[in-house]
C-alpha cells in the first residue's frame, strides 16, 4: 500500500486528504505523517485522523515517515519549497493548486522536476466535475468544430469571495492574488478544453469593493465594534472547526482567520478581466468578480460548427436545480439541450472522483483529467502574466516568463 505524507494541516489538507485517507481510503493508501509550521493545527488534524504522526520539521518527515509520495496543501507561496525538496529527496509530489504563485518559482519547480526525474501532479479538481468533463467530451466529439473564441465569466459571492480578503489570500506575495489562486482552476479548464497553449495577454484589475472602502471597520471580526451592523461579520467561534483549527492556533503563528475585509493593506484585486491569445488563434475573454450577489460561472465556446453555452450557479437562483445544462447551437438553427444529473459531495462530486483516480486507480483517465506540472505551469502563468500586465500596463507574452524550456 502506497504511503503519503502531508504538508499543511488547514481546511483543504484535512477535508480533501487527511480525513479521506484515514477513513474511506484507509485500505488503499496510508497517511504516514503531517507537517505544518503551526503545530497546534497539525495536532488538531492528527486528533481527527486516527492519530497520524505529527512531525516537527519537513526534513524529519521526509527522513522518518517512510512516505513514498508527498502531498502539498500548505499556503500557496510555500508550495515550491516543499515540491522541490521532495523531488530532490527522490519522491513524487501531489500538489494542491496553484502549483505555485509566479514564474520564478514555477521555473524552479520545472527545473527540479527535469533534473531529478521525479514527477509533480497538480490536483485540478475542477476537471473532475462531470459537468466540465462533459464539455470536454462534446468538444472532442466535434460538436462545435474548430474553436475560434471562448468567453468565461466567473462570479464569487460576498460570502466565499469575501473570505479571500480575510486571510493570507489577500496578499499578492502569498497567493498571487485571485488571478493565480482562483483563476488557475479556470485557466486550466480552458487550456484543457482547448488543447492549445496561451501565448499572449492583456489584463486589467482593480479593488474598489473590498479594501479601505468604508469607515466602519476594525482589525478583525472577533473584536470589531461593528459586528452587529456589518454584513461581512464572520464569527470564528460559530463552528468547532474554525475555533479548534484557527482561533486556538493563533498564538503559534499569528494567523487570524477573520481579519477585516476593509483593511488598508489588502493588495489583491476584486475585479479582474483578461484577454488571452492562444497558439492556434483562439481568443479568450475572461472575467472574475469577487463581490457578486450570487456565485457561479458562465462559459460560451464559439466554433466553426456552432456554439456551446454552459453555466452553473452555486447559490441563489437555480442553485437547487437537479440538473446542469449544456446548450449546443448548430449552423442549421437547431438548439440541443443536454441535461446532466448534479452529483452530491464537495466541489460538485469532483473531489471524490479525483481521490479515486489518485489513490485507488479505479477511475480510468479517459479524458486526461490528471494534470501534470506543465498544466500547473501554463494555468498559473496566465495569472502571473495577468498580474504583470496590470502592474506594468502592457501586454505580456507567456514565453517571456519561461526560462526553462518545457516540452
Ligand atoms: N482544489 C481546491 O478546490 C482547493 C480548495 C481550497 C484550498 N485549496 C488549496 O489548498 C491549499 C491550502 O488552502 P486552505 O484553504 O486549506 O488554507 P488554510 O489557511 O486553511 O491552510 C493552510 C495551512 O498552511 C500552513 N502553512 C503556512 N505556512 C506554512 C509553511 N511555511 N510550511 C508548512 N505549512 C504552512 C498553515 O499553518 C495552514 O495550516 C492552498 O494551496 C489552496 O490553494 C484548494
Q: Give the CA-CA distance, first to last residue.
A: 32 Å
Low-confidence stretches: none
Spatial strand sequence of the major β-sheet: 13-12-11-10-6-9-8-7-15
Number of domains: 2
CATH first level of the largest domain: Alpha Beta
Note the run of SSEs as H and E. EHEHHEHEHEHEHHHHEHHEEEEEEHEHE
Q: Report the count of strand segments.
A: 15
Count of alpha/pi helices: 14
Fraction of residues in helices? 25-40%
Mean pLDDT: 96
Shape: globular
Q: Please compute the radius of gyration using only Cα atoms.
A: 21 Å
Bound molecules: nicotinamide-adenine-dinucleotide
Structural class: alpha/beta
Q: Please, could you describe this protein's structure?
A:
The chain is of the alpha/beta class and 407 residues long. The chain folds into two domains: 124 residues, 3-Layer(aba) Sandwich (Rossmann fold), CATH 3.40.50.720; 221 residues, 2-Layer Sandwich (Dihydrodipicolinate Reductase, domain 2). It has 14 helices and 15 strands. The chain has a nine-stranded mixed beta sheet with strand order 13-12-11-10-6-9-8-7-15. A six-stranded mixed beta sheet has the order 2-1-3-4-5-14, sandwiched between helices. α4 runs parallel beside α5 and α10 crosses α14. The protein is globular, with a radius of gyration of 21 Å. The model has no long low-confidence stretch (mean pLDDT 96). Bound molecules: nicotinamide-adenine-dinucleotide (NAD). The site of nicotinamide-adenine-dinucleotide has 22 residues, from α1.
